[in-house]
From TrEMBL:
Catalytic activity: (S)-malate + NAD(+) = oxaloacetate + NADH + H(+)
Lyase listed as a keyword: no
E.C. no: 1.1.1.37
Name under which the protein is recorded: Malate dehydrogenase
Binding-site residues, substrate: 92, 98, 130, 161
Segment forming the signal sequence: none
Oxidoreductase among keywords: yes
Keywords: NAD, Oxidoreductase, Tricarboxylic acid cycle
Gene encoding the protein: mdh
CDD domains, A to Z: MDH_chloroplast-like
UniProt-annotated binding residues for NAD(+): 11-17, 105, 112, 128-130
């Protein structure tokens, strides 16, 4: 059998960890012929709960699960890992915005960024913990040993949410909707660019002609879906977040079909779409199939979309300013 892929998951005893780990261990993420070694990284006080999760992982009898270790520090937890999925951090409660968490959660990503220096030379790091764009920025700044393009933050849940809403509206299967990219921050300013999307190969705006819905209900539903889930469930989304994290990593590992793209927050090189250099900004990306990717160039943006993208960019610049002391 092949060498195991080593994956660290922080917050392993949390809600998202409880959904995510089983789907990685089952072979769903890296395929049935690739063994996986899991490093469950938790705070010392949650290590016991992580042990319980590890016992359940064993009890599933997954033939792809090569081993599990539990770590109460990122320094040992990230040693030799090929993927670091940074989930562990506090979730928001009702009435909060995600960036209200920045002061509490930001420092976690300083220590974790530094610890990524111990990872394997091909490590890729995905930040899920909120506010995820700015946390990814903090981790990346604190780990100059790893190229910036190996860091990303997850906006795949937002893309999936947007596609689900549009599929319902158009009465089609969600798989018919392509190229619905999320731009900017994983926050209530995010921009689901419906103008470039297609349904069954046709322009989405030719199929859903109700522009007031697209600019109104559709936009706000996607932007505020996380809050609506907290309102309904009393806790933030977990299974859907884990599922979208699986999609995020799979998208990076699979060559993106010709003419298509997916959403991920990645560092801007400053040359495209007036996004300042270095910001972790969600954009349409295409994977080369080996984890590396390219930002899609040359997309036409209407003045309406440019205005919306400007708002989310300004919010990310403000977040960057708030954490400037954490950026090495
Ligand atoms: N990017 C996205 O689309 C989404 C992001 N999230 C975010 O993911 C994060 C986790 O959410 P849940 O699993 O629901 O929270 P949770 O509270 O159920 O679990 C968080 C876990 O992280 C652990 N943790 C905290 N600090 C840690 C550290 N320094 N190192 C290792 N582990 C640590 C805690 O002990 C806890 O077990 C939250 O910040 C949440 O807002 C949630 C949904 C979607
Ligand atoms: O809304 C939250 O706080 C959790 C999250 O990021 C989401 O569900 O998109």
């Amino acid at each position: 059998m092949a060498q195991p892929v080593r994956v660290a998951v922080t917050g392993a005893a949390g809600q998202i960890g409880y959904s995510l780990l089983f789907r990685i261990a089952s072979g769903e993420l890296f395929g049935p012929d690739t063994p996986v070694h899991l490093n469950l990284v938790e705070l010392p006080q949650a290590a016991k709960a992580a042990e319980g999760t590890a016992m359940e992982l064993d009890d599933c009898g997954f033939s792809t699960l090569a081993g599990i270790d539990i770590h109460d520090s990122p320094e040992s937890g990230f040693e030799g890992v090929n993927w670091a999925l940074l989930v562990g951090s506090k979730p928001r409660g009702p009435g909060m915005e995600r960036n209200d968490l920045i002061k509490e959660n930001g420092p976690i990503f300083v220590a974790q960024g530094k610890a990524l220096a111990k990872a394997a030379s091909d490590v890729r790091c995905v930040v899920v913990g909120n506010p995820c764009n700015t946390n990814a920025l903090i981790a990346q700044h604190n780990c100059r040993e790893v190229p910036a393009t190996r860091f990303s933050a997850m906006t795949m849940l937002d893309e999936n949410r947007a596609k689900a809403q549009l599929a319902k509206k158009a009465g089609v299967n969600v798989g018919e909707i392509k190229n619905l990219a999320i731009w900017g921050n994983h926050s209530s300013t995010m921009v689901p660019n419906f103008e470039a999307a297609t349904i069954g190969g046709k322009s989405l705006t030719d199929v859903i002609t109700d522009r007031a819905y697209l600019e109104g209900d559709f936009f706000t539903t996607v932007q505020k879906r996380g809050a609506a889930i907290i309102q309904a469930r009393g806790k933030s989304s977990a299974a859907s977040a884990a599922s979208s994290c699986i999609d995020h990593v799979k998208n990076f590992l699979t060559k993106t079909p010709e003419g298509e793209y997916f959403s991920a927050a990645v560092p801007s090189d400053g040359s495209l779409y007036d996004i300042p250099q270095g910001l972790m900004f969600s954009v349409p990306v295409r994977s080369n199939g080996d984890g590396s990717y390219e930002i899609v160039k040359g997309l036409e943006l209407s003045d309406y979309m440019k205005g919306r993208i400007g708002q989310t960019r300004d919010e990310l610049l403000k977040e960057r300013d708030v954490v400037k002391d954490l950026l090495a």
